[in-house]
Amino acid sequence: MSVSAIENGTVIDHVPAKNLFKVIQILGLDHIENQITFGTNLESKKLGRKAIIKISGKYFEDTDINRIALVAPDAKLNIIKDYEVVEKKVVEVPDEIIGIAKCMNPQCITNFELVKTRFKVVSKKNVALKCHYCEKITSQENMRIL
Q1: What's the rounded Cα separation, in Å, for the pair 70 and 124?
Q2: What pLDDT digit, counting tens, does each position of 92-126 carry?
Q3: Closest CA to 146 of 112, 103, 93
Q4: Distances (CA, A) of 97 to 7, 22, 27, 90, 132
Q5: Whole-model pTM?
Q6: Distance CA 61, CA 71 (A)
Q7: Helices H, strands E: what count in the chain?
Q8: With contact defined as beta carbons under 8 Å apart, do 50 and 44 qualify?
């Protein structure tokens, strides 16, 4: 199996295989015209099964990287320029998440008013977020990305 190298762009590696399409949706990759190559259920010593995404001609802002961290906290980003890796970024879950995830509590003010969601990260390994307003915990399994 052979996948062509990209001249310029980003490679997202170490995505849990089950979260590949969540990452694609979160980053809006299903709506861009850039060349995208992805593989899933690839062997990984660390994850068991992993996915990888190559996006030609696209680089990501920190807010996008924070979104990736919510569903793929062990992901790695390789920045490619002229077919060479010029920078490696490790995705890290920040201490606070603002305006990225939805509170799972149907009674939370963020689900009724135009209030930007705000969470304190209470677990970075199995991502769990505590709502600033209602103090309910949203686990990674129940998380919806805005």
Answers
A1: 9
A2: 888 999 988 999 999 999 999 999 999 999 998 88
A3: 103
A4: 33, 18, 16, 17, 10
A5: 0.80
A6: 17
A7: 2, 11
A8: yes
